[in-house]
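Human: I'm a chemist; would you kindly supply sequence and structure tokens for a protein?

Assistant:
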Amino acid sequence: MQNTSVIAITGIGVTSPYGNGLAALVKGLSDNVPALAPLSLFDTPIGYVPVVGQIRHPVDPAEPGGMPMSRTDRLAMMAAREATAGLQTHAHLRKRCAVVMASTVGGLSDLPLAMVANPAEYYERSGLDVVSTYPVSHVSDSVAAALGLGGACVGVSVACASGAIAIALAAQMIRDGRAPVALAGGADALCTTTLAGFHALQALDPQPCRPFCETRAGLNIGEAAAAVLLEDIEHARARGAEVLGVLSGWAFNNDAHHSTAPDSEGRGLAFCVAQALGTAGVALDRVGYVNAHGTGTPLNDVAELQAYERAFADRTHPVPVSSTKGHFGHTLGAAGAIEAVVALVAVRHGLVFPTMRLSRPLASRHVDLARDDVRTGVVETAISVSAGFGGSNACLVLEPPSDGGGSA
């Protein structure tokens, strides 16, 4: 079923290992340089210094007089502030702006080992402020409080599909008339516990990752935040907002298969892609770029290619696919949001970003794995695909504004 209203994107905010702001991300991707390097933010108990996508520029402190903020909260606030800049003079919209932010780490990154060793003593020594940031819902709460956004406030945590699902849920709220505008996205900071967990799963590559390569050995964790401002396109035009792009379709579902492993045949993900393109009314041959989940793990990449084989089997030519996790790492709860922004940049600028370090691509009949250099040309439609533990899948369909819009 096709959507009956068009969801406009009227604000974009990003903070990433490339720097603060959307412009830094666009430059890093366009220059085709990696932002992966050895971790220096903290020590880890995994026996070696992992390669990560670390934010090395200054992170804004908590807002004066606001809620306590973890590193994840502050990254989210930086992206949210950029995305909502166009609402500065619209107090009535800020009061009704919904906030739907995703995270998998939340304030866990800021909890010290002393908390684990002796929680009672830690609480007694005024550790409550730090502990209060632990719930992933705190990301949305703190952003809303810091920026004065008074609409519905929702936290989303659905593993690595969280950021994309947050955007889809916010779009549905707009479509249903639940809010005139909505801020949606995701944020996650680097975290000792997260790194230790992925290390225990033997999912980390000690070297820079190489998604969709026969020699792939795992993923690199990154940290980032990304957010978009959504509203009905007619509402945006009526208030004179610049339409930066269009979210024309979305879908999310579940493999119902395993707690960590994807369905090796990619059936759930393929159905999710088909649903999203169906709601958008987009023909298969119009898809000019797929920003893949593409983690670089042995199981994910094969299963994902199987999904695209199913979803794009009726195309007249292979679909261009790449993973940008080789550029800035797997940003977990932020991944679906920042990669949606990457897909939007692709359609706005006519760019297809390659998968880095793809020396021996996995064979695929219906997929054209982009590698080496940035491709240029018209990209009519791009999709951003996310998949997470537990079998969660999400797909967002991004298109340029009908009038061409301005620069990203």
Remarks:
- The longest helix spans residues 335-349.
- Residues 7-238 form a domain with the Peroxisomal Thiolase; Chain A, domain 1 fold (CATH 3.40.47.10).
- The two ends are 30 Å apart (CA to CA).
- Residues 404-408 have pLDDT under 50 and may be disordered.
